[in-house]
Amino acid sequence: MIDVHFVPTPNGHKVTIMLEELRLAYRLIPYDMLKGDQLTPAYRRINPNGRLPAIVDHEPAFGGAPFAVFESGAILLYLSEKAGGAFMPADLRRRSLAQQWLMWQMAGLGPMHGQAHHFVRYAPEGQEYGVARYVNEARRLIAVLERRLGEADFLAEEYSIADMAAWPWVRATRAIAMSLEACPNIGRWFAAVGERPAVMRGTEVKNAPNLSSLRPRLTSEEWSNLFGENMLRSAES
Questions:
Q1: Looking at residue 35, what DSSP letter applies?
Q2: Residue 186's closest CA among 154, 140, 138?
Q3: Which residue, among 8, 52, 31, 17, has the nearest Cα to 172 in the 3D structure?
Q4: Residue 191 domain flag
Q5: What confidence tens digit (pLDDT) does each residue in 93-137 have?
Q6: Does residue 212 surpass a pLDDT of 90?
Q7: β-bridge mates for residue 5, sequence order
Q8: What is the mean pLDDT of the chain?
């Protein structure tokens, strides 16, 4: 059994998609980030970075005590290895492509789109520079993805963890009203991945309605738990 410390974000859905693809038994442990569930010392013992998701594997392949893994890309790699290299190409050239595009998602697509979400959806009005900076970078990365998917059906030429990592972030572009109508290659890929039964099952859990609107209204305590002093103090304590 694998415990998944979870919120229904793109990063959380990467993990549940992979677990569904592998048909591994898992238990979702939901967190309410607005209440600060992720800020506790108990959770930091699982994930020292204090972010979600993280997993605890109660039967690691190498034996011993339950093993915690944090960072969604590392979780995908861990689960692939646990399942004998599943969803990582056997061909070494394609394997390198999968690794490269996974790192691209972790270092670029996810963080830059995350910043775009923050400035478009959460930051106080009047943050024009921040909005322009991160929306432009988010669009640039979408253009990179569109170009790549014009060269191959999938990021590593066959369906892999790289696609599982990128797909939920592309789906999340709707939350910042970013149109993908001019991206036919992404559209074809997005539909093909989205039709996979495991992807459908892995993304069934949705965000609470108050976090699904374009401009969520947060109390001062909720803001502090997500972005402010409470979040900072939890890391420093």
A1: G
A2: 154
A3: 8
A4: yes
A5: 999 999 999 999 999 999 999 999 999 999 998 999 999 999 999
A6: no
A7: 29, 54
A8: 95
Task: Report how far residue 134's alpha carbon sits from residue 123's, in angstroms, rounded to the nearest whole number.
Answer: 12
Phi, psi for 27 (deg, rounded to 5): -125, 125
Looking up tokens 């592309």 gives 170
Burial class of residue 85, CB neighbours in 10 A (0-12, 13-18, 19+): exposed
Q: Cα separation of 223 and 233, whole Å?
A: 14
How many Å apart are CA 209 and CA 215, to the nearest integer? 11
Do residues 120 and 185 share a domain?
A: yes
Q: What is the 3-state secondary structure (H, E, C) of 185-232?
A: HHHHHHHHHHCCHHHHHHCCCCCCHHHCCCCCCCCHHHHHHHCCHHHH
What does DSSP assign to residue 182?
T
By three-state DSSP, how is residue 7 classified?
A: coil
**Structural domain of 138:** 92-200
Which tokens in the block code for residue 200?
A: 């459908």
Residues 6+ apart with CB under 8 A from 37: 31, 43
Structure tokens at 143: 């253009």
CATH number at residue 103: 1.20.1050.10
Q: Same domain for 111 and 80? A: no
Which residue type, as a one-letter code, is found at position 167?
Answer: W
Q: Do 26 and 10 lie in a common domain?
A: yes
One-letter amino acid identity for 143?
A: A
